[in-house]
Design goal:
With about 475 residues, the protein is of the alpha/beta class. It folds into 2 domains: about 270 residues, Aldehyde Dehydrogenase, Chain A, domain 1 (3-Layer(aba) Sandwich), CATH 3.40.605; about 190 residues, Aldehyde Dehydrogenase, Chain A, domain 2 (3-Layer(aba) Sandwich), CATH 3.40.309.10. It contains 14 helices and 22 strands. Helix 2 runs antiparallel to helix 4, helix 2 packs antiparallel against helix 5 and helix 4 runs parallel beside helix 5. Strand 12, helix 9 and strand 13 form a beta-alpha-beta unit. The structure holds nicotinamide-adenine-dinucleotide. Nicotinamide-adenine-dinucleotide binds next to helix 7 and helix 8.
Length: about 475
């Protein structure tokens, strides 16, 4: 692996933090720090905005084809560095290498996809129905963007914002998660290699997120905030965005139901449940938080799922063979353990696992809880860990009502071999993403976004670039 960056990336240069502070980045497999990085302050945030605001008009008027070619080159550079980036993500976040490689491919795809979308920003020209004049509609870059990203997908949650923003002609300041700043720090420099002009993209690792977002959001030169993270922080940012009516896109928390009907192919359903539950060790906004299974097949499904979960090889993500890495930090470990303990106390049964694994790092045993009472906390809060909760149901209506009984509305999964049922249930589910007979739905070419308290706006697809464009209507005689 090449030497890792440790400094802020502002205006196309490495910079130490004003005041010179730095913070540790930890390996969750050992709980030990492995590097220190510069800790950006509000002064640094405003320096990044100075750089972004200065180059914004030039970047917006750079030919779309040129913006597209830079994104395409960045895509190729990311793919070329797959092994380095995968190892880095595994080190700072804990995911197994095979999954980290998958994230590099997925994350890079947003750069390729939006390099293709950059040249298709369209408007229209129509006669006014009255016959009095013509209607001209164009779309322009919204302006400098602040992107705040979470730790669970250190690369993809960044490229999903940077790709469309740059394609649209926006400048971007990224504030990566405190736990996983390095992947974005590497990406910032890689974009410079791809030919991105200095100042268009800045990356500000910081241990004090609000010290970065607060001053930037109060500055009228910033025109957009795009956030991926918890619903609690998203709500706070929506409140703050009211001050200057800042445009915002929010990708927030989830509480995905996974429905297994009696007419499902049970092996396919178990495969799907493993992916939907265990992708990223359960630390995903799309993770199946509640597995609802028809009572007539519940025991058979549970036995198969328990066998698969119990067979998972747990270990540091960067060691060959590890299928489940550690949780990201001690706080996450405490949350998962508390939710499991609460469910067990309320009458759930641990069919496998149920406890943290003693020793270094933040490992939690792959767990299946059966017979979880419907009012248990674990069914209402995001688990964000390797814990599958199983709840039985008898009727389709009952399963739909349970699925929608949550303030969240991000992902849902349905397993059935009956087409009519699949269509009926997917229409009834209050969720922005629904997988039918599959446990992974994310695709750079499809719109990803939540309903209800899971967020606003879409990332990816043809929709994604519109989050970074504003519409202008020109009335012509
Ligand atoms: P988090 O909300 O704690 O942090 C997300 C980001 O916000 C981090 O960069 C953090 O430093 C920053 N932040 C924290 N407090 C802030 C504040 N007061 N002001 C400004 N920024 C602040 O979330 P997390 O623990 O990093 O990530 C897990 C959450 O993200 C889960 O709820 C998960 O569902 C959600 N998530 C959603 C999606 C999606 O697309 N909907 C994708 C991935 C993760």
């Amino acid at each position: 692996m090449e030497a890792l960056p440790t400094q802020l990336w502002i205006g196309g240069h490495d910079r130490s933090a004003s005041g010179g502070a730095s913070f540790d980045v930890f390996d969750p497999a050992t709980g030990k720090a492995f590097i220190r990085v510069a800790d950006a302050t509000s002064v640094d945030a405003l320096a990044a905005l100075d750089a972004a605001a200065e180059i914004q008009p030039r970047w917006a008027s750079t030919p779309a084809r040129v913006r597209a070619e830079i994104l395409r080159t960045a895509f190729e550079l990311v793919v070329e560095r797959t092994e380095d980036l995968a190892l880095l993500m595994s080190l700072e976040m804990g995911k197994p290498l095979a999954e980290a490689r998958g994230e590099v491919a997925y994350g890079a795809e947003f750069l390729r996809w939006f390099s293709e979308e950059a040249v298709r920003i369209q408007g229209r020209y129509t006669p006014a129905p009255s016959g009095n004049g013509r209607i001209l509609v164009t779309r322009q870059a919204v302006g400098p963007v602040l992107a705040i990203t979470p730790w669970n997908f250190p690369l993809a949650m960044g490229t999903r914002k940077i790709g469309p923003a740059l394609a649209a002609g926006c400048t971007v300041i990224v504030k990566p998660a405190r736990e996983t700043p390095l992947t974005m720090m590497v990406l910032g420099r890689l974009f410079a290699e791809a030919g991105l002009p200095a100042g268009v993209l800045s990356v500000l690792p910081s241990s004090r997120a609000a010290d970065i977002s607060g001053p930037l959001m109060s500055d009228t030169r910033l025109r957009k905030i795009t956030f991926t993270g918890s619903t609690a922080v998203g709500k706070r940012l929506i409140e703050q965005s009211a001050e200057h009516v800042l445009a915002s896109s929010m990708e927030l928390g989830g509480n995905a139901p996974l429905l297994v009907f009696a007419d499902a192919d049970l092996d396919q359903a178990v495969d799907g449940a493993m992916s939907a539950k265990m992708r990223n060790g359960g630390e995903a906004c799309t993770a199946a938080n509640r597995i609802l299974v028809a009572n007539s097949v519940r025991e058979e499904f549970t036995e198969k799922l328990v066998a698969r979960m119990a067979a998972l090889q747990v270990g540091p993500g960067y060691l060959d063979g590890s299928e489940l890495g550690p949780l990201v930090n001690a706080a996450q470990m405490t949350t998962v353990a508390e939710l499991v303990d609460d469910a067990l106390a309320a009458g759930a049964v641990a069919r496998t696992g149920g406890t943290p694994i003693q020793g270094d790092g933040y490992f939690f045993a792959p767990t299946v809880l059966d017979g979880v009472p419907r009012d248990a906390r674990i069914l209402r809060e995001e688990i964000f860990g390797p814990v599958a909760t199983i709840v039985g149901f008898d009727a389709e209506d009952e399963a739909i009502a349970m699925s929608n009984d949550t303030p969240y509305g991000l992902a849902a999964y349905v397993f059935t071999e009956n087409l009519d049922r699949a269509l009926r249930v997917t229409e009834a589910l209050e969720a922005g993403l629904v997988g039918v007979n599959r446990g992974v739905v994310s695709d750079a070419a499809a719109p990803f976004g939540g309903w209800k308290e899971s967020g606003t706006g879409s990332e990816g697809g043809t929709e994604g670039i519109h989050e970074y464009l504003v519409t202008k209507y020109v009335a012509l005689r």
